[in-house]
Structures are given as structure tokens and as C-alpha cells.
Inverse folding.
């Protein structure tokens, strides 16, 4: 399988605190990969190092065989990103956010079509501040899809959403997965990881506890479902 | 170019939706000009170059739009965008987050220019104002003042990491400068001691430049203020470029 993301021995410390320690992973084309862990486990730092926002102290991370930091211009034409806790300019309207982002890419997707597809067309002229939590996250997905990406990063896309909105977002992700998009996501929700991820990795204090397919990760533990298995890994190691 | 145009048009709409910039940058100085013009427009201020209160107010008030964008608009917007991770989101696109920075500076400059034009129109139409000095030199001086104030604003945007601290620092810089540099209250009315304190403010020097240029005073006395503003601009730009963070 063609490797889309390749991370080896990634490490990062803030002062004396090691936030990410010796993480290695690789994600193939069309795979959905989930990075799981408590708050402060190093999930966001890992994503930010892969995206070149933060510089790793050790190790390397590549997307399409290139380091994001050094090849921003070419790389990000094909990479979609939703950063944790997405905020927008005050008073900005939905179509304006989309338009402002579209113009940054050479061959952006038609955001009107995306709004239509994700049932947000009726909010097109509304201020983003007035959207519900679920609608906002749907907008985040649309923004990540504007580059017509081959790979997307979703950092805690569903945190803070109610059950119904979360389900809706999952359905959208499953739809994207079926279309062959490579997805890197972080989440707190084990149900989400089970439903969406081909493979996952559980980390604690920046260190890998286990990795594999959902079945494998459950199989290594004495439990039957991912949530119990996850808690067992957290306490065991 | 297409990118810049879209960003300026969207950010410009956002600027208009939040009326602070228009009120403080455009309406307020025009209002003050009307007041000074009505109350004391014709009165002559004695000095090395005699001028009327209208002459003095015209030169001083054209800087208010600059200051409103330099110390309220631009740094607060940028600090807000940093806080909200909007700059960071631009970083993970093929384009540069600098587009947003330049876009905001251009919108600030446009607001300031509209303000100066508004003041000129009101001064000419209502009070028969005529500039004795060279208008092109005056425009050049205006842009020197703009560059120096914007560099100071960008310094604040770089050094203040959060919207909260940017707000506080901007207020601390903006209001004393606005009140004590002669931008709103005529400098000539200040007692000698206060004038000396006011001279420290870069804006006081900027206004001095504009007053001399608009009243055909002697260019010689401008060397010191211009050098002061240019050095200040260079220092601020260098520090702000070195310390600016996207997040």
C-alpha cells in the first residue's frame, strides 16, 4: 500500500516535560487512522509536528514523502486540516469563511457544492457565530475538504458535540472514507474510533501503549470492547 | 493578487460590520474638526509661523485615523486572529499567513486615508480651509507618520501574545497619545511643561511635521522629527518581524 504519512521516532519536549516520546507510525492510502489518548497525551502536538507547525526535537514526519515544514507550498495543496477548537473571525459569514480559504488554493473544490452536500446551504449567508455546534463542525469538515485533499487531519472533530450531532459527523466521515480519502484523526470517543478507524494507536504521556486494527487492540487486552480495552491499557501501563 | 483582493474584500466587510474603526477613525476626528472650526476656527495661534486653530486642527486630526487603525484596528485584529488560531490555519495552507497581516494593514491604511479625505472635505467645504504649504510634501509627511505609527502597532501585535494583553497595551498607548500629542486637543493650548512631556510621543513629532508642511514653515526644523520617526519605524519593524508568532 502506498504510504501517505510516515512518522519515525518523533519526540518533543517543552522544558523538562516530554510531550511526545519516540512515536513512529505510518498510514497508507485510503486508511483511517485514529490517535487516541487522554487530554494532554500529546495528540495535538503530534499532529502539529506532522503538519510542520511545531518542530520536532528528534525524529521526522513526512506527508507524501516530504517534510511539511519545508514543502508547505506544494504539500498543502493536497492536505486538508481541521485544527482543534476551530474559531473564526468575528461577524464572518459562512460563505465568506469558505471563500477566504478557497482563494488560498490553486484548484479548490467548489464550496457551494460542499455546502449543498453537507446540508449547510441554508446557512450560507449566516454569521458563523450563529451556527450550532454540529453545524460548525460540519463547516470545519467542509473547510478541510476545500483543497480537494488526498489526506485530511481532524483533531478532536467531535469533542463537545451532542450525541446526535456526533452521529451526523460520523456519517459524513464514513462517506469520505468510502470515497477513498486518507484520514488522520484524534478522538476521545472509543465508539467513534471503533466505527471509523481501520487502525489506531493509543498513547499516554506521549508514549505509545499499543497500536493495530481495532480487533487487534481489543484482542491484546482481556476485554471485549474498545472502551474497556482502552481503560485497561491506560491503567496497565 | 487575486488572493489579496479577496482577502481585502472579506476583511474589509468584517471591518465595516464592527463600527469601532469607523466611529473612532473617521467620525470622531471629523466631529472634533467641526467643533474646533465652529468655536475657534479663525483665531490665530501666535508662534514662529502664525496659523489659525483650523490650520492646526487640520494637520493634527488627519493623524487620528492613522492612530485608530494603528493602535486599535490592526494589532487587536491580529492578536485576535492569533488567539483564534486563524493565523495558524493559514499556515497549514499553501499560502502565507502574511496575507492576512498585509490585508489588515491595507484595510487600516484605507480607513485612515478615507478619514483624512473626509477631514479635508469638511475643512474646505465648511470652513474654507486652504493649505499654504506644499500638498505633495504634506502627503509624503502623512505617509511617514503612517509608517511610524503602523510599525509601533505591529510591535504591539508581535509582543502581545493574547488579545487581552493587546487590548490593554493598545489602550495604554492609544489614549494618552491621542489626548496629549495634540491630535485632538490643540498642542498650542498646553502649558510649556506639558508640551515638553508631549514632545516625547512620536505622534507629537508626526503632527509637528504635518503642521510645518501644511503651513509652509521652514523645512530645517523637520529634520530631527523625521529622523526620530524613521529610526523608531526601523527599530519597531525589526523587533516585530523577529518576535512575531503565528500562534
Amino acid at each position: 500500500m502506498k504510504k501517505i504519512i510516515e512518522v519515525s521516532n518523533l519526540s518533543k519536549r517543552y522544558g523538562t516535560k516530554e510531550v511526545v516520546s519516540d512515536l513512529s507510525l505510518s498510514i497508507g492510502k485510503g486508511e483511517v487512522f485514529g490517535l487516541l489518548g487522554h487530554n494532554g497525551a500529546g495528540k495535538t502536538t503530534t499532529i502539529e509536528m506532522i503538519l510542520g507547525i511545531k518542530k520536532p526535537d528528534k525524529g521526522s514526519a513526512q506527508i507524501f514523502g516530504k517534510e511539511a515544514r519545508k514543502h508547505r507550498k506544494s504539500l498543502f495543496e493536497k492536505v486538508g486540516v481541521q485544527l482543534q477548537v476551530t474559531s473564526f473571525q468575528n461577524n464572518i459569514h459562512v460563505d465568506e469563511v469558505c471563500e477566504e480559504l478557497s482563494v488560498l488554493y490553486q484548484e479548490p473544490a467548489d464550496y457551494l457544492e460542499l455546502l449543498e452536500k453537507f446540508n449547510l446551504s441554508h446557512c450560507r449567508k449566516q454569521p458563523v457565530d450563529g451556527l450550532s455546534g454540529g453545524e460548525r463542525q460540519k463547516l470545519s469538515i467542509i473547510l478541510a475538504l476545500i483543497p480537494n485533499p488526498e489526506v485530511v487531519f481532524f483533531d478532536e472533530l467531535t469533542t463537545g458535540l451532542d450525541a446526535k450531532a456526533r452521529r451526523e459527523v460520523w456519517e459524513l466521515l464514513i462517506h469520505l472514507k468510502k470515497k477513498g480519502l486518507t484520514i488522520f484523526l484524534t478522538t476521545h470517543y472509543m465508539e467513534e474510533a471503533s466505527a471509523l478507524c481501520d487502525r489506531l494507536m493509543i498513547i499516554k504521556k506521549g508514549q505509545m501503549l499499543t497500536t493495530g486494527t481495532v480487533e487487534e487492540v481489543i484482542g491484546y487486552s482481556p476485554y471485549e470492547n474498545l472502551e474497556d480495552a482502552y481503560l485497561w491499557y491506560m491503567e496497565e501501563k | 493578487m487575486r488572493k489579496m483582493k479577496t482577502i481585502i474584500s472579506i476583511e474589509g466587510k468584517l471591518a465595516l460590520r464592527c463600527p469601532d474603526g469607523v466611529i473612532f477613525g473617521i467620525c470622531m476626528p471629523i466631529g472634533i474638526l467641526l467643533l474646533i472650526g465652529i468655536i475657534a476656527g479663525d483665531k490665530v495661534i501666535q508662534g514662529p509661523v502664525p496659523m489659525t486653530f483650523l490650520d492646526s486642527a487640520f494637520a493634527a486630526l488627519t493623524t487620528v485615523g492613522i492612530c485608530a487603525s494603528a493602535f486599535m484596528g490592526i494589532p487587536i485584529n491580529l492578536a485576535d486572529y492569533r488567539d483564534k488560531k486563524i493565523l495558524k490555519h493559514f499556515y497549514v495552507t499553501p499560502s502565507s499567513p502574511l496575507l492576512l497581516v498585509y490585508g489588515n494593514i491595507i484595510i487600516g491604511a484605507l480607513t485612515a486615508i478615507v478619514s483624512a479625505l473626509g477631514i479635508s472635505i469638511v475643512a474646505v467645504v465648511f470652513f474654507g480651509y486652504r493649505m499654504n504649504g506644499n500638498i505633495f510634501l504634506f502627503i509624503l509627511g502623512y505617509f511617514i507618520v503612517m509608517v511610524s505609527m503602523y510599525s509601533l502597532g505591529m510591535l504591539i501585535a508581535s509582543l502581545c501574545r493574547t488579545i487581552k494583553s493587546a487590548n490593554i497595551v493598545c489602550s495604554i498607548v492609544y489614549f494618552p497619545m491621542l489626548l496629549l500629542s495634540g491630535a485632538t486637543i490643540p498642542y498650542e493650548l498646553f502649558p510649556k511643561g506639558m508640551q515638553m512631556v508631549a514632545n516625547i510621543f512620536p505622534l507629537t513629532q508626526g503632527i509637528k511635521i504635518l503642521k510645518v508642511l501644511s503651513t509652509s514653515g521652514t523645512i530645517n526644523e523637520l529634520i530631527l522629527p523625521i529622523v526620530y520617526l524613521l529610526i523608531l519605524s526601523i527599530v519597531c519593524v525589526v523587533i516585530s518581524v523577529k518576535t512575531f508568532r503565528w500562534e
The beta strands of chain B are 44-45, 51-52. Residues 53-83 of chain B form the longest helix (31 residues).
